[in-house]
TrEMBL record, chains A, B, C:
Membrane-related topology note: Multi-pass membrane protein
Name under which the protein is recorded: Ammonium transporter AmtB-like domain-containing protein
PANTHER family cross-referenced by the UniProt entry: AMMONIUM TRANSPORTER, AMMONIUM TRANSPORTER AMTB-LIKE DOMAIN-CONTAINING PROTEIN
Gene Ontology MF, one: ammonium channel activity
Coiled-coil residues: none
InterPro entries in the record: Ammonium/urea_transptr, NH4_transpt_AmtB-like_dom, RhesusRHD
Highest classification ranks of the organism: Eukaryota, Metazoa, Chordata, Craniata, Vertebrata
Chain's role: Functions as an ammonia transporter. May play a role in the elimination of ammonia in the gill.
A Pfam family assignment: Ammonium_transp
Organism: Pygocentrus nattereri (Red-bellied piranha)
BP GO annotations: ammonium homeostasis
């Protein structure tokens, strides 16, 4: 406790202030307004209503809802780690966006010696932020009690690696990935798995007494899912071409999500014991379709194909939770706390393959602008997938190694999933029953296993 | 329990997969892109920013919030049926929209042998979905433990009947009903009452021990009300003419809702014992104004008239909860669980009459496009009202009869309003006190009656 | 209780109906449609898509979310006053907006003998409503059990005084205050402090047993913060010039909020005992940056300056909670329940000073339209600040005196912060443990003090 106290009271403020000083200096030296925010570049001919803000801001606002409210609620599913889930999501998202504005700025918005800033940069930074939040899912609650520091350090390393991957994929390989299935979801997944591989904790394979949900935390988490579900079309279409491309992206995302939602209910009833639905499935598996349609979301794939992709992605995701995650945890030392490999990895791979198949049909069609044959484009897509996975996994593992440095001393297992280490908790916090107080002591092992497999599903 | 288990584990997946196969086949055969989503129909002259998506998507997103988050939270007001309220709303809405895309597609968007799809179809489908969710309010929690199947079956029948009503009213009678007061609210109400009339359960007239709210569930439910309240202007204006019509629709809806909210607080304090406010009133009666302004929402009715309609609708709704619902339940076998007859039926009728009165004043004025006199148009409006009620009530009763088929065996009363039949519940679920555990055993009958009358108000 | 019962059962409805009659009469006599909502003013040349509704409605909807959902959740942080926080926010906001439509209408939208109404009026009214809700923070839960009446009376007086201040500042002094830091935040703060100064309750300086939060109420309150955070850019830019000004306003607000969020986490860990984070800090202090950038939000201040303003505002706000609020409460009789002087007062002052500094640099530059030198404009800004504070404080104190009239008899201290006086509460309400039941009886004084200082921070 003293150690933790010192960490938070001294090291957290010290780290944050250092980061803030760094950011403000970089802002002062390098960041200026872009053509749509600089008053000096407006002339008598400029029509105010044609400012890019009116195209970009609505999508930005929708994605803000997903990042801060959707993710925030979704991640507060632990009974005794609700503050942590929602509030650390707030902190990490805020920092990740600021950092991404700079990193992506140097890669994509840098000319005349300056990073040029408008709402479009913020949208891009929110995508980088989504990458960070997704990969955090692999280690949620496991890196306490210095998790706060860890989070900020992880962001510090993850965002630049993502910047490199983005630059390779978008600028050099010029692949189709409108919804970010490869860049965002696959990258985030393998980065997170890389980190958790290094931070392996054998004892957590047997479950943890505080790893349960409560009735209220499950409700809040589903609410988060609904926010993500509702605004996912905005996420998938924000960076596509204006006009019919963007229109199709919205349509396909909606159809894909609808298909995966229906499928998730069917599979949840079918695969859980007694035919009862699992809230964890409702919270996660319903969203699989949003990822699966990603890489081909703006193409002319037909609505039926979007529907099929949603069903397929959901099925892969569900089977992954049921069979692959326990295998990864036990055999490959990959403890994937929120199952991001199922919701973002497997679905991202399916999406990549689907986009390649679609390209075979469509080229030589509308999109041959790059002068590549269908086969060539397919190879480029595969190269993008491969390099994304490689960069992400290596970057994740290196980050994991840095996090093991003695200065960031790892917590003992018992301190996981607990708000009390970080927060002044209200008086009723210690009244909430935990697993072993609920009359399950004699069958605690079994109960915890159930609890673990229901909620976390890496067991 | 075994029976229920079999139902969910085998029949639910079987039913869902069958529906999905049917949908995907119909999508593959009949659904294609419309002029704004089809890349092949864009030319060099097409301006991307004039794509319909930029007019339709913002309203679509707002209505999504209402359907998935607003309704989802509002319906989770039962203490032990919160998962059911929010999650089954998610499932039924998702399925209803998919099904409505097809049914409405055949009625409204079918030409050249195909249904043509854009975001505008999704908006229409969300309206059909709202119909389904409203009418479900009549039977919420009462049809368990096979409610899931029942829900999906009910949608299967309700959407096509609604499609017919919509076709008659919009295409043939050409009435004024911009906010859908007749088509959506009145139809949904009488369909739901038709179903519940057939599924009558005498014993529930005496209340049910699990039919209470909790502090947290009441909070969440009010949050749902606020989401509906905030986005209702988008709902009422989404399908009106662009320009000043849409502008007026927003204004009138806001004014109507404001008036009904103030009135609801006054009446709640006045009519409840001890002058205490009832959360059920705050959750429901405040919204009455949104329905009452519906049928004349885009007309030049004046802001004061919108205010008066809000007050009037709210008063009718409140008196309905207090006096009409108990009467309907005891004498007419119509057990209206959420009081949809008050919030959607009575207010819809008022809205219809108000629109007729307005038309008498306005024609021969701006809107004589159809070559009808004011009186003729009034008769058409009445015809629309009559045929909507008739179709809805008959359709609802037939659906109720289908739901009584032996295959869908009705649950015994004690299994109502309980999440545990459907979900793997967290360990703290069985710790939440229910009515009879709260020291009310000696006065249980009274307590339950109170609880029933406060929360559900059909007693 | 009998007294309270009479107040609510008779006086509340009587007051509301009287207000409604007044409003509807004024609407009928004075309110008509504006150029964008009046069908009679549209010609063949009118392009529907150029209607002002398409520029205004998206911002209006965002601000609605802040007012009804953001504030509603934020204010429900008390363990036993959650209904009160969320529901009374709903009531007061609804009434404040209706009243502001009339008052502001006479000041700003009145010509040809009529108030002309469009969505733009609603946006303005929401700003007035924000003023009311902020100043209520000073007396939250303290004016029960006649708080409902009190609230409505307070609005009745506050909105016109605000109208006068607005008229002086905007029409006469013509100052820069795009985000409303002076007009909205400073006015609201000093009005609220004026009221609470008159309603001083010495005994509350020692804390109150029901003044604690619970785990769930803290979660909900953070959720409210997140909604305010996400939509604050819309609030700060809604009334700026279209085009690059609006674009910059969004950017600066986002950057300012991000900086203040990071800083809030650092300071919270640094200043709270054991280095633990306080949820009250996360709920309030993170938002300081949104106010601090307000007065110069549309200027060319540079992103780095926005960042610095965010950090500065957050630091002032945090130190205010820690050191200034207890001083104000003990020495100056100003009990500032939610600490509005920190979040809105100090930050508003900083924002005013920052805008003056910026003006010195920018003029003679882009904005010299008024033919004033930089120094002259600075003096006008100071005059605006001074007259705003004076009007607000005097208006607030007069309102406080009116609220002390015998008819509105003040409640005894023990009846504060309690839902049960106003609501039919669910059966589990009395099961929730309060402070003294949580094993803190022996150390109750200390506990309550902690609780008070953590949650409310005026101690």
């Amino acid at each position: 406790m003293t150690k933790n106290s010192a960490n938070l009271r001294v090291r957290l403020p010290a780290l944050i202030f250092a980061l803030e000083v760094m950011i403000i200096v970089l802002y002062a030296v390098f960041v200026t307004y872009d053509d749509h925010t600089n008053a000096l570049l407006q002339t008598n001919m400029t029509k105010p209503m044609e400012n890019a803000v009116y195209q970009d801001y609505p999508f930005f606002a929708d994605i803000q809802m997903m990042i801060f409210i959707g993710f925030g609620c979704l991640l507060s599913f632990f009974q005794r780690y609700g503050f942590g889930g929602m509030v650390f999501n707030f902190l990490t998202a805020t920092f990740a966006i600021q950092w991404a504005i700079l990193i992506q700025g140097f890669f994509h918005f840098y000319y005349d010696g300056k990073i040029h800033l408008g709402v479009i940069n913020l949208i891009n930074a929110e995508f980088a932020c989504a990458v960070v939040l997704i990969s955090f899912g692999a280690v949620l609650g496991k890196t306490s009690p210095v998790q706060l520091l860890v989070s900020l350090f992880e962001i510090l390393f993850e965002v630049p690696v993502f910047g490199v991957a983005e630059w390779i994929v978008v600028k050099y390989l010029k692949i189709n990935d409108a919804g970010g299935s490869i860049l965002i979801h696959v990258f985030a997944c393998y980065f997170g798995l890389g980190v958790t591989f290094i931070l392996y904790r054998p004892s957590l394979n047997d479950g943890h007494s505080k790893e349960c949900t409560s009735y209220q935390s499950d409700m809040l988490s589903v609410l988060g899912t609904l926010f993500l579900w509702v605004f996912w079309p905005s996420f998938n279409c924000a960076l596509t071409l204006r006009g019919d491309d963007q229109h199709r992206a919205i349509l396909h995302t909606f159809i894909g999500l609808s298909a995966s939602t229906l499928t998730a209910f069917a599979l949840s009833a079918m695969l859980n014991k007694n035919g009862k639905l699992s809230m964890a499935d409702v919270q996660n598996v319903t969203l699989a379709g949003g990822v699966t349609v990603g890489a081909s979301v703006d193409m002319m794939i037909t609505p039926a194909a979007a529907y099929a992709l949603g069903m397929l992605g959901c099925t892969a995701c569900m089977l992954g939770y049921k069979y692959l995650s326990p295998f990864l945890a036990r055999r490959l030392r990959v403890q994937d706390q929120c199952g991001i490999h199922n919701l973002h990895g497997l679905t991202g791979l399916i999406s990549t393959v689907a986009a390649i198949c679609e390209l075979q049909e469509l080229i030589p069609g509308l999109k041959a602008g790059l002068g590549r044959t269908a086969k060539e484009q397919a190879l480029y897509q595969l190269a993008a997938l491969g390099s994304t996975i490689a960069l992400a996994a290596v970057g994740g593992m290196l980050t994991g190694l840095l996090l093991k440095l003695p200065y960031l001393a790892s917590p003992s297992d018992e301190f996981c999933f607990d708000d009390e280490l970080f927060f002044n908790v209200p008086a009723d916090y210690n009244q909430a029953p935990v697993a072993q107080d609920l009359g399950c002591t004699e069958t605690q092992d079994k109960h915890v296993l159930d609890c673990w497999s229901t909620t976390v599903r890496s067991e």
